[in-house]
Design a protein that fits this description.
heterodimer, A: 78 residues, mainly alpha, B: 229 residues, Rna Polymerase Sigma Factor, Chain: A, Arc Repressor Mutant, subunit A, 2 domains, 10 helices, elongated
């Protein structure tokens, strides 16, 4: 069958992540720790279970995670 | 000021927030001491903090700028200043929440990025009608349709459409359609509905769980559906 990446993405947006996830408030509370663990090469997902799943399901929190990681990672690289 | 998320009870998750408090690094200790002091020391620390937050807000604005062609440079810098001002209020109000699990600057940055992100999403949708009906179904169902896969894909989509119509409450359906189908940013919808990001996400999560459950009862899972695509 022909690959339908657009439809897959639409299904993922509609049905969201399968596993347990934190909510937006918890995501905000843990985001700084999660990003620093990621940048240090540590297992951030084990330290903050459910946060990665939330980022997969919440575009706004995902954008903020990407920005914080880029900002802090950029400073560390200087 | 935007609704900065408060650390609250997690209803979506099975996880618990870490209550660990870590020993502070020297720079973070200094930030806290200065911000909790009085007089000139505090005033200078607050000014430094505002500079730091403005830098983070401008960073976020610069990242989002390509998606906001209708906003001029001056408007964007206004957004950055407003975001830094609101983030400053948020950080100072939440100083006691800082547990030292990251550097203080990383913790503070997230307030500015959050505030800037919310303001930019709202600016992008200012004066726009919010599509709250499932207007994207036709696009969703027709893009890239192949003759070979048409029937199966159509069946899957119809099952999903039926599930959305049958198992969700009107509010769940409205939120799911607006956020997941029509691509309205969650902060924009929250503002229009007089709600907040966390409450809307919980509604979206519950709707998604209901859909998954209903589809599973009918022998469909996302993995199986993906295999069909």
């Amino acid at each position: 069958m022909t690959e339908r990446p657009d439809l897959k993405q639409a299904l993922v947006r509609l049905l969201g992540p399968a596993g347990p996830e934190v909510d937006c408030d918890r995501c905000f509370a843990e985001l700084d720790r999660y990003v620093e663990l990621e940048l240090a090469g540590a297992d951030a997902d084990a330290a903050v279970p459910g946060l990665r799943a939330h980022l997969d399901g919440c575009p706004a929190c995902r954008e903020e995670h990407e920005s914080l990681k880029a900002l802090v990672g950029g400073e560390q690289a200087l | 000021m935007s609704d900065v998320p408060a650390a609250s009870v997690v209803e979506v998750s099975t996880t618990r927030e870490s209550s660990t408090v870590a020993p502070l690094d020297l720079e973070s200790r200094r930030w806290l001491d200065d911000l909790k002091s009085v007089g000139t020391t505090r005033d200078e620390a607050v000014a430094r903090l505002h500079e730091l937050l403005l830098r983070a807000a401008r960073f976020e604005v610069a990242r989002r700028r390509p998606t906001l062609p209708h906003l001029r440079g001056g408007d964007l810098d206004d957004v950055a200043f407003e975001a830094a001002d609101d983030a400053l209020v948020g950080v100072l109000a939440r100083l006691d929440d800082f547990r030292g699990l990251s550097r203080f600057t990383t913790w503070a940055y997230k307030f500015a990025i959050f505030e800037a992100g919310v303001k930019l999403r709202r600016r992008a949708w200012q004066r726009r009608e919010l599509p709250l009906e499932p207007e994207s179904w036709s696009l969703f169902a027709s893009t890239g349709q192949s003759p070979a896969g048409g029937a199966e894909q159509q069946e899957l989509l119809l099952a999903l459409q039926r599930a959305i119509a049958v198992v969700l409450t009107p509010h769940q359906r409205q939120v799911l359609v607006a956020l997941a189908l029509n691509g309205i940013p969650i902060d924009v919808l929250a503002e229009r509905l007089g709600s907040n990001r966390n409450a809307l996400y919980k509604t979206l999560h519950d709707a998604r769980q209901k859909l998954r459950g209903h589809l599973a009862e009918n022998g469909l899972t996302l993995d199986m559906m993906e295999e069909e695509l």
